[in-house]
Amino acid sequence: MTLEELVAGFRGVATASVADAVDKITGKTGFMDETMKPRINDRKIVGPAVTILEGPTDEFLPPQHALDAIDESPAGSVICIAINGEKNVAVWGGLMTAGAVANKHEGAVLDGGVRDITEIRRDYDFPVFSRSVSPGTTLGRYRTYSANEPVQIAGVIVHPGDIIVADIDGVVVVPHQHAEAVLAMSKNIDARELEQAQLIINAGSLREGLAKYGRI
């Protein structure tokens, strides 16, 4: 299955079903913790992860790995920035958003803060999921260490090329080696839940639906 087919498939299934499928297929939690919120809009994003790692510094350095990744990554990428859960600085803002829009990226997932929200909403409507909102700059506090290596964001390890599926339900990381199996199971979960919900409505009984399908 091509990347384009995977992305299209994951757009059509519920994010909660994807989280359940990752649980079952990998035996590990694939959804990020509840602090990761959509800050700009409620749009669903699906795309391959491009990963950036940031860490402390007292030098005034630009986030060079992130800037390079925005310009050099394929269109449709999800820029994922790890900063060890630091909530009080913004690792993303208006200018980075402009670059992401110019390069047709899918969205950003940040283990830190975002700023310039008014500008991003007004000018770009670009999806950003972040741990926090902060006006603080990383300059003199943090710098980028690396790009396209495994990172941890909100409790989940993200590898370059993993499929990010995110909407108002949360952010799920689909390991790229399991993407086809997770998509197939997600579709099956969606179909069974639709049948179960219809049975509950027709029977006028939640218990009857649970008894037949064994799922809640």
What does this structure look like?
The chain is α/β, with parallel strands linked by helices and 216 residues long. It has 7 helices and 11 strands. Helix 2 packs across helix 6 and helix 6 runs antiparallel to helix 7 (206-213). The two termini are 30 Å apart.
User: Number of DSSP helices?
Assistant: 7
Q: Pairing-aware structural class of the strands and helices? A: alpha/beta
> Roughly how many Å apart are the termini?
30 Å
Proportion of helical residues: 25-40%
The average pLDDT score comes to: 94
Rg, alpha carbons: 18 Å
- N-to-C SSE string, H for helix and E for strand: HHEEHEEHEHEEEEEEHH
Which shape, going by the Cα principal axes? elongated
What fraction of the residues are assigned to beta strands by DSSP? 25-35%
Describe this structure in a few short sentences:
Helices cover 37% and strands 27% of the residues.
Topology:
Layout: H1 3-11, H2 15-26, E1 37-38, E2 45-56, H3 64-72, E3 78-82, E4 90-92, H4 94-102, E5 107-114, H5 117-123, E6 128-133, E7 142-147, E8 151-153, E9 156-158, E10 163-167, E11 170-174, H6 179-203, H7 206-213
Parallel strand pairs: 2-3, 3-5, 4-5, 5-6
Antiparallel strand pairs: 1-6, 2-7, 2-10, 8-9, 10-11
Helix pairs in contact: 2-6, 6-7
Keywords:
216 residues; alpha/beta; nine-stranded mixed β-sheet; two-stranded antiparallel ribbon; 7 helices; 37% helix; 27% strand; elongated
